[in-house]
Amino acid sequence: MPSNATLHRQRTLGGALGVIVLGCALTYHFFPRVFHVNPAEAPRRSMSLGTAAPGSPQAPERASAVAELNAGPPLTLAPAEVIAARSGRNADLPEQLSADPLAVRELLARAAKALHAGQLVGDKDSAAALYEQALKEKPDSRRAAQGLFDVRVRLVAEIDQDIAVGDADSAQDLLNALRTLPNAADDVAQLEASLKTLAKVRPMLAKAAGLLQQGNADQPSGESALDLYREVQQLDPQNAVAEQGIFEVQRAVLDRALAAVAQNDFAGADKQLAQAQAIRPGSQQMQDVRKRIDDMREQRANGVLAQAHSALDAGNIAMAKKLAAQAQGISPSLGGLANFQEQLTNAQLYASYKPGQVFSDRYVDLPGKTPAMVVIPTGSFQMGAPDSDDDRIDAEMPQHAVTISKGFAMARSAVTVGQFREFVRASGYVPDSVKMGGASVYDERSGAMRDDAGATWQDDYAGRKAEDSLPVVNISWNDAKAYADWLSQRTGKAYRLPSEAEFEYALRGGTTTRYWWGDGVPTHPVENLTGSGDRSRSGRHWSHAFRGYRDGYWGPAPVMSFAVNPFGLYDINGNVSEWSADCWHDNYNRAPADGTAWLNPGCTAHVVRGGSWGSSPEQVVSAYRQGNNSDVRSGRVGFRVVREL
């Protein structure tokens, strides 16, 4: 691929050559003595020659003469005989009383050959002379009258062409010949007016060609080649040289656009394209260059975007942002840009995960993997109970704004008995229910919780052996933290207990209602709650429960048995309450506003969040919170983990 400098030199040379050709042609026609040519002796087309018939020796000569008058693609002018044919038949033909005699027919045949050969006027063998002789011998010959009419029309067409390309000398010679033909007065008057106009615009065209050669194609305004060509067009709307000059001006502007692209200045290229569009709106060369620049723009932008992807993959977010901005600046509508911006945002906030994405980390030093985690989106919410809530308690006040500015992942459900058993076996950890002895479990006979010295984490809410799919209960805050620390060691990632703010934010799932599912009793099973329709093994029912609600469980259900909340979390406000990382505080005065855990050195009580299988409706509201000593083990309390991104 040529360098930018080489490309610039090539474009400059090509444009200069085109301007030089145009300048030389115009100078030759307007000021022939500059080339040491005497106008009286300069070779001219013989008046006996019109536009040559297709394939005749004169056709290339005529085409060359036209081409020399234009810098750029040759002007497209219809042949004179085609123009003449469009003029139709002579409406004033005489009424022929008798057939043409042999001698007249011979003259007409010779005249037709001369007309076909382009020998229109100038000598006795020209078409005009032969048709006139035929009319003298047979004044009512329709063929002779029509032939003479055709000669006149052809001459008019050729003069029009000469005037169009600025060849005033040739046009004047042919005009003098036209004067000798009958019925030519109107044509002569019109063509003389056109020649006078040409005389006015020739100096303007010469000056415009000079300005174009000097590089003043469209600037400065009011003194450019474009301004002169526009002025010529006002005087002579059909002037072909002016039209060709404007073509060259637009090409010069488009060359500047291409030069800007070569320097990666796409904003400059757009500016030049807008200027070129104003010169000749919708021209083919405008469309071609625009498509070429658009292709180069897209290719360049895709290249920069590929570099941005590489930077993002390497973890260099700052460079990825810079490159993405460059790609957008080059091509704002570039395909794939929106997707990359999403990836960039996810990389900044979620370590390249997406909000709502579910994943598990594999252990690096032994078989197995972590609980399924779901990515929680960033955002802000009002933490605590609003003043309008008549059932609010002091611990839920004052309500305050919290912003979660960094994404995190939370376990989709509470940790199960099977998952906790894996931890105990692999680590040798001794849970507090074993080390300190016992837990608080549900007593079916009394319908209340009671201490059971023999209950451990391997038992369910009632002290019976638990299934692996149930949420682990009888777990202390210390046990929950030990499990999270073990996951960090096994994966090399940062696992921990959720902060209280993270838990409420995730529980609400973007809602502001009393519960995440609404303000009242659920219309279908959403969580394992205390429902008036639920019954224990012995037929007990809840004295204070969600009226008319039934979920089919008395005690914890296997995890993920119910619906997910808006953030994709199961059992977040039912089944079991869960430990959080925060130390217990009686209210939210001076609570953190950034979602971090509120910790005090040496605190012995921590926060428990979320409702359980035995919580009353007031204990299930999204703002509800309670505190327990760190060593408390209960059949109503479990935990889930958070993974930092």
Report on the architecture of this protein:
This protein folds into three domains: 4-241, no CATH class; 300-350, no CATH class; 373-644, paralog of FGE (formylglycine-generating enzyme) (Alpha-Beta Complex). Helices cover 44% and strands 8% of the residues. It is built from 18 helices and 13 strands. The chain has helices at 4-30, 58-68, 80-86, 102-117, 127-137, 142-164, 168-179, 185-214, 225-235, 240-262, 266-279, 284-313, 317-330, 337-350, 417-427, 432-437, 477-491, 500-508, and strands at residues 358-359, 373-376, 379-383, 400-404, 408-411, 439-443, 448-452, 495-496, 577-583, 605-609, 625-629, 637-638, 642-644. A five-stranded antiparallel β-sheet has the order 1-2-5-13-8. The chain has a four-stranded mixed β-sheet with strand order 11-10-9-12. The relative contact order is 0.07.
CATH superfamily of the largest domain: paralog of FGE (formylglycine-generating enzyme)
The tally of domains stands at 3
Question: DSSP helix count?
Answer: 18
Instruction: For the largest sheet, list the strands in their spatial order.
Output: 1-2-5-13-8
* Overall CATH class of the largest domain: Alpha Beta
Write the layout of secondary structure elements.
Layout: H1 4-30, H2 58-68, H3 80-86, H4 102-117, H5 127-137, H6 142-164, H7 168-179, H8 185-214, H9 225-235, H10 240-262, H11 266-279, H12 284-313, H13 317-330, H14 337-350, E1 358-359, E2 373-376, E3 379-383, E4 400-404, E5 408-411, H15 417-427, H16 432-437, E6 439-443, E7 448-452, H17 477-491, E8 495-496, H18 500-508, E9 577-583, E10 605-609, E11 625-629, E12 637-638, E13 642-644
Parallel strand pairs: 9-12
Antiparallel strand pairs: 1-2, 2-5, 3-4, 5-13, 6-7, 8-13, 9-10, 10-11
Helix pairs in contact: 1-8, 1-10, 3-6, 4-5, 4-6, 5-6, 6-7, 6-8, 7-8, 8-9, 8-10, 9-10, 10-11, 10-12, 11-12, 12-13, 13-14
